[in-house]
Description:
By secondary structure, the protein is of the alpha+beta class. It has one domain: Thiol Ester Dehydrase, Chain A (Roll), CATH 3.10.129.10. Strands 1-2-6-7-8-5 form a six-stranded antiparallel β-sheet. A hairpin with a 3-residue loop joins strand 6 and strand 7. The longest helix has 23 residues. The chain is elongated and about 55 Å long. The two termini are 35 Å apart.
Amino acid sequence: MRSTAERQNLQGITEFFLKAFRFQHRTFAIIWILIYNLNSPHAASSGEFKFKERKPSMPNQPDKLDDLLHILGDIYENRLPFNQILGLHIIHLKPDLVEVAFDMTDSLIGNYVQGSLHGGVISSALDAVGGLTATAGMIQKKLDRPKEEIARIIAKVGTIDLRVDYLRPGKGKAFTSSATIMRIGNKVAVTRMELHNDQRRLIAVGTGTYLIA
């Protein structure tokens, strides 16, 4: 159960995103729907969310960061159709490190002789974790900004440039894509990404540049 202070804080966020929803911005609508569900007494028992509920505490900057990252994680994992096609699920989500994983399936194979991942799947997984990392870093960097500003920036985050080096065939039963921030400014973030298989063999590395303003 959330404390009264936490519920009031989330209610304030909900009211803002409801206003944003009226402007018919799809990303704002998604975030509002999520927060509405988080406030619902049935959310905890519905099995809809995978993240563990935190212990009640008074709202502060760390709690604000956790709440926004929780929302961000749900969007990337459950609300973006392409990420669901890839089967991405979040293992770790913090501004200093993000890890996502996915299983090998027949629909992801690019070389049917070797049974290895399609190169586009590899680059997409790296891009997804790079963008998620850039967004998480932006949220932390601008945590003192109004919620309205942070929401607008999240809606505009996009890839500027992506470089991928394919080191080995994408063979394995499962894969983990991770990213860290190399540099982050007020408008642009640069991330370093890696893709490993279930044997911890490095499959590919990448560098991504993302608009965060």
